[in-house]
Amino acid sequence: MRRWDRDEGDDPYLWLEDLDGADAAGWVRHRNAETVAALTGGGRFGTLRDEIRQVLDADDRIPYPRWRGDRYCYSFWRDAAHPRGLCRRTTLERYRRPAPEWDVLLDVDALAAEEGENWVWSGVTVRRPDYERCLISLSRGGADAVVAREFDLVRQFFATLADGTRVPYFVVGEPDAPAGPALLTGYGGYEISQTPDYDGVIGRGWVARGGTYVVANIRGGGEYGPEWHRAAMRENRPRAYEDFAAVAADLVERGITTPAQLGIEGGSNGGLLTEQHAFISALMLEFLWRKLTDSQHAAIPRQPSTADVGERPLTVETQ
Question: Residue 232: CB partners within 8 Å, gap ≥ 6?
Answer without folding.
Answer: 188, 189, 218, 219, 220, 239, 240, 243
